[in-house]
Design goal:
Distance between the termini: 90 Å
Largest sheet: none
Helix content: over 70%
Structural class: mainly alpha
Low-confidence stretches: none
Strand content: under 5%
Number of strands: 0
Length: 121
């Protein structure tokens, strides 16, 4: 069995009370500082707004780059299809050639429509 004298028990209670008071003071003042400083809150809001604007600008640029890449891919595909049509020795009735010609004409039409729409904007 553990035997603790009254003096030891009283000392431990005083030490624990002081420790609790110190911890409570530190936690309480920290919360008061965070809740009571409107300048910090305004700074955090500005930082959040800046972050949101950065994200928005990033995705806007990403969309524009994807649009450019899609146009470049269409141009390359059309070029390759026309080259295959002009340079490859395929019989006129070859279904692969007919499919390439259809896709090439369709892509050329879409590219022309997008080019006209982007110029008018």
């Amino acid at each position: 069995m553990l035997s603790i004298s009254i003096a030891e028990l009283a000392t431990m209670m005083v030490i624990l009370a002081l420790l609790g008071g110190i911890i409570g003071y530190v936690v309480g003042t920290d919360r008061a500082k965070r809740a009571g400083n409107p300048d910090d809150l305004d700074a955090m809001r500005r930082e959040l707004d800046d972050y949101r604007q950065g994200v928005s600008a990033h995705f806007q640029e990403t969309a524009e780059l994807m649009q450019q890449m899609t146009g470049n891919y269409r141009t390359l595909y059309t070029h390759m299809a026309r080259g295959a049509d002009a340079l490859c020795d395929m019989p006129d009735g070859d279904p692969r050639l007919a499919a390439l010609q259809r896709e090439s004409r369709a892509l050329a039409g879409v590219t022309a429509v997008e080019t006209g729409a982007s110029r008018s904007a």
